[in-house]
Design a protein that fits this description.
The complex is a heterodimer.
Chain A (H helix, E strand, L loop, with lengths): L1 H10 E4 L15 H5 L11 E10 L3 E10 L9 E7 L4 E12 L2 E6 L5 E7 L2 E7 L8 E9 L6 E2 L6 E11 L2 E8 L6 E13 L4 E16 L11 H4 L2 E9 L7 E2 L4 H10 L14 H8 L5 H15 L1 E2 L10 H7 L1 E2 L1 H14 L4 E6 L19 E8 L2 E5 L18 E6 L5 E5 L5 E11 L5 E10 H23 L5 E9 L8 E9 L3 E4 L2 E4 L21 E2 L4 E10 L4 E5 L4 E4 L5 E10 L2 E10 L3 E2 L4 H15 L3 E5 L1
Helix pairs in contact in A: 6-8
Chain B lengths: L1 H19 L9 H4 L4 E14 L2 E12 L9 E6 L3 E11 L5 E4 L6 E4 L5 E4 L2 E6 L7 E11 L8 E2 L6 E13 L8 E5 L6 E4 L4 E11 L17 E5 L2 E4 L2 E4 L3 H12 L7 H12 L4 H15 L1 E2 L1 E3 L10 H7 L1 E2 L1 H14 L5 E5 L19 E6 L6 E3 L12 H4 L3 E5 L4 E5 L9 E10 L5 E10 L8 H4 L4 H11 L6 E10 L5 E10 L4 E3 L2 E4 L21 E3 L3 E10 L4 E5 L4 E5 L2 E10 L2 E10 L2 E3 L4 H15 L3 E5 L2
Parallel strand pairs in B: 1-11, 7-19, 18-20, 26-33
Antiparallel strand pairs in B: 1-2, 2-9, 3-8, 4-5, 4-9, 6-8, 10-15, 11-14, 12-15, 13-14, 16-17, 21-22, 21-24, 22-23, 24-25, 26-27, 27-29, 28-29, 30-31, 31-39, 32-38, 33-37, 34-39, 35-36, 36-37
Helix pairs in contact in B: 4-5, 5-7, 6-7
Amino acid sequence: MKIFVTTFLELLISIQSFSQKPPVKFGNIPMEDMMMTIYEKDSSARAVILVDYAETTGFAVQRHVRIKILKKDGLEFANAIVPLFGKGKIESLKASTYNLVSGRIVETEMSKEGVFKENFIKNIDFQKFTLPNVKEGSVIEYYYKVNVPGIPNWEFQKSIPVRWSEYWAIIPDAFTFEKYMQGYVFASTYEVSRKMVYLQGYNQRVSGYPANVHHWITENVPAFKPEPFMTSERDYISKLNFVLSSIHFPGQPVIEFMSSWKTLNDELLMNERFGKVIAKSDYLKDEVERITTGIADPMKKIEAIHGYVRQNMEWNNTNGILTEDLKRAVEKKLGTSADINFMLASMLEKAGFLVDMVILSTRDHGFVRRQSPVIQQFNYVVCAARVNGKPVLLDATEKFLPYAILPMRCLNSQGLMISTITPDWIDIAPKAKARTVVEANLMLDPGGGMKGKMQFTFDGYDAFKMRKEYHTKGEDGYIKSFFQSKDWQIEKNEFQNVKELSLPLKEIHEVSIGEHSSVAGDIIYLNPFVHSKEAANPFKPETREFPVDFGSPIEKIFIIRITLPSGYVIDEMPQSKIFRLPDNSAKYTYDASQAGNIITITSYFQINKSLFVQYEYPDLREFYNQVIAKQAELIVLKKN
Amino acid sequence: MRPVFIFIFCSAYYLALASDLKYPVSLIPLELRAGMNAVIREDQLVFKILSKSKAIQYVHFAITILTEKGKHHASEVIGYDKLSKIRNLSARVYDAEGKLTKKLKNSEINDQSAFDGFSLYSDNRLKHIDLAQGTYPYTIEIEYEVEYKYLFRTPTFNVLPGGNVSSQHATFELQFPINSETIAPRYNLINIEKKPKYEKTKEGFESISWTFENVRPSKEEPLGPSERDLLPQIMTAPSQFEYDGYIGTMNNWDEFGQWIATLNKGRNVLPEETKVKIKQITEHLKTQEEKIRAIYEYLQSKTRYVSIQLGIGGFQPFEASVVDQMGYGDCKALSNYMVSMLDVAGIKANYTLIRAGKDAPKINFDFPSSQFNHAVVFVPSPSDTIWLECTSQTNPFGYMGTFTGDRKALAITDNGAKIVWTPKYTAEQNVQTSTAEVSVDLKGNAKAKVKTIYSGLQYENGHLNFILSDQYDDQKKWIQKNTDIPSFDINMFTMTNKKSRNPSAVVDVDLTLNRLATVSGKRLYLTPNLLNRSAFIPEKMENRKSKVIRKMAFTDLDTIRYHLPEELYPEFLPEPVKVKSRFGGYEASFILDQGSVVYMRKIIMNKGEFPPESYNELIEFYKRINKADNIKLVFLNKT
């Protein structure tokens, strides 16, 4: 949505005067900050941002940063990079390092040798600088002004603690911004006041405009630390976001950038690269007829068309909501996710389906906030075909996912259906689990060796993962990595339905397993989990700051039937057991039984929801601990 | 004359055909395609030396991409800088039949700064094009020239790029003016036995060329030589050259060293204050080693590493006085600064070039040329040589480690250069010692106190050497990641850094291990190898062809005492295990001692190269170790 930015920049070139009172004066470093050796609030911090201050008037920002370097691995904060867009440039850059030398504060100013400007790519420069004489214990500080498009977002939270973060956003009444705060840290001060600001237009005339002055302060913000099983860091870091919604200068028409979801819906429908694409795709008609001839069932039709697009188009790993050039993409057989899904939608429309597009934000792109109707929140589009009046969500970017299942990246709670008739929010819940069933039928010999057949059945996201791996490594490579670091002899391997995505994938191995039991005299100790064992708890830390997100429900089933050697009887058997979390959000069933000379162990591991909030974490962690302990239990056999 | 005519006629006919269809896939011999992701159709590289400060490189490259895995070969990155220029860049795409389907547009060339991920600033730039298509196979053809206003970097010709790519036709040609031996290029063939062809070109240049046809890559085997050591390659270097005004020769390492010395000349001047400071901190010290250490520690406290690559291709260090004033520099600047400071204290040290990196490819010392990527300081001494890494604020004094240890380097001397070995680390030095006291209760829950000492190269296990100077939560994460127990809680831990020339780290951990032992019925099971279980088995292979290489020698010692409730007695005690092979030795024992069980494990792994037929022995060796590491103790409850 580059268009918004340029419009904004071209309207006016600069706003005069920065006028707020910064919390600290450049060069005036309190002795206690110089003497600080550890940061009290986080004794492990390698550096702490003492002050992070910015004041913006929408076209320029002045920034003042002061950092205390506490440890050697905090030295990296003495290098800074400021990206410059378009004709942007940095002004009034000054930077200094302060060191304590025999009780006195000694300042070293940065000279021009420490400043570099690099042309990164067209229209983006990097202004880089590095401060002189920085050591453990130094305080560094820098100040600059830079022109920017719009009101920059403001991160209160950084990878190191921030003692004082302050932001002034002076927004003339002519501009309306949507703003929202995210994360777990809240501003300790937020005030709004009024003042006049002076803007200079391209006609060189300076005029005064009334403005709202927003002022935020947060204090003692802890360092942001990402954790495993998180969707996107962007969702959790504490931050203020701004989105331009309209511009209205007195006596001029209003320029709307965001008014409502309805407007956004209508604008997308009129867009040449979105709403108009399907109507202009007659060149796909013949192909649709060829593929769907003789198919009456609507679901079968969808499957056929989806299969065609999936197999013929390659995704270039680029996301987007607008098509680049659909016709060219079709010719090249290569395109963005938008190109591919618009091709799918176009073909479905030609086949007589009522089709709408659904825009969404992928998991690594962050949540969508309903209170801010702006397009920037989205980065992906899928299509929805109606079958019996119900929308079926479809995506054809992945070669190894059947038509009914959306890629994991799309599963981010909700999407917005863009439609002439029924624009609305639509739930995007996982339609499939990550499911694996392993069945083993093994004969045990008196030496402790086992021989027999193991069958794997993969469904949903597990089938996707397996097919992808099988394709990437090839059958030989796949088998090789399956048996890697296992002391097993392979007698035979078989794969079923690798290509038929609609059928569950089966993998069968005939194996001899050498080292899975220990024999001491007349006793055999045997762990039945020749496979599917939870090797280690994925949640090592005792506590958790952010929710755990698995993406989809998980099911792992392991059934083993062991035929005992003649003359042996069971001396000890693990007990059957069930444990679960409240609401069955996670459940484990272990069942051990004997019939004649056959022992059957069934292990059923389930994670039944994808998102666990922080307070559920200790239970989830303990659940894993218990599963691991249960799976470590042994069967003891004795010779009669 | 007649047959000649026919021949010309034929080739003209062929050319006419070819101008319509280029590189059809049908013309690739089947044996060149099988199992490949891409096939190089044509690879012509001509490097033409015009004078000691001028050269042109011509590239004409065509490759057929057969599968998705060959996709990255459809993009090309060409580097340049202030003294070189890319000209006449063009590219085309052909379909499987050889029909032209696309020509590169100027707008599709991305021009950007060569951001290497660690330099703050570098004046290198690059052009990047990507011609990946959605349908396979297809062919891309690229042509360009690079004009150099200097002669220093000359190309290395790789017949194969590595991976599953074969080559149908490749030519490498070096050209230089007739009767000008002084600027004739030098070359060195690696994994190639072909004799070059000598000719004179129409323009009056000498030409040396090699042509390769239908080359398939040889297969890399696990734990063998790496692919890069097997690929055919032609290295080249100038004899006389000029780089940004600095003239030199590199027919031997002395000449190369002299040139580097010219770049560094006069850059060792320190301000008076600093000289006084150095004298102050060293004059009371007795031994040379103490003095070096004091200056090194001064360097570490005063400076930091910032990579800024400007001018002369990043070969010339900043002046020592600049580093002194700014307190930062890159490896060259900091090493030069260190040499200058040592000089003030009357200690002679050498600025030394090296190729840094864990498992970095070896420098070809038979062929003097620019092959280095890092600079360190070497302090020679008849009794005790000391090596200094100047870019780290935390590196122990005299320690080289996996980054720069155990390899040859080039020390720049007064008369030229000298090849020197950096410190080696042996199995006796690379030791990990764990001792643990574990109390297990009747429910199988346990408390453990574990002390582990990591020394020598094991000081770098999982980047422990960096973690030691990191903050508390990073250290805790390291312990969580490197503690090989399925589930545990950390009650307390400490990490101690013992810096020395053979440094060590001491990690003390206090753990709660709920359900460590499995209790079922009257039995309790325990795997006594608590922390150091081997699970690796090399991949099975028939027909092993290449030698077996073990890169690091080490020793691991584990002693764990299990305190158990009186009610428990062992159902049986496993026999001690001893495994010996040419790769190393392993011992494990289980002893009952005053109501507790003591588990001891010792493994020594050797470093070296072993014959191909020893590969199965290695598999056997690991299998036996893995089995021994998984032995369980079984206890019965008396009550």
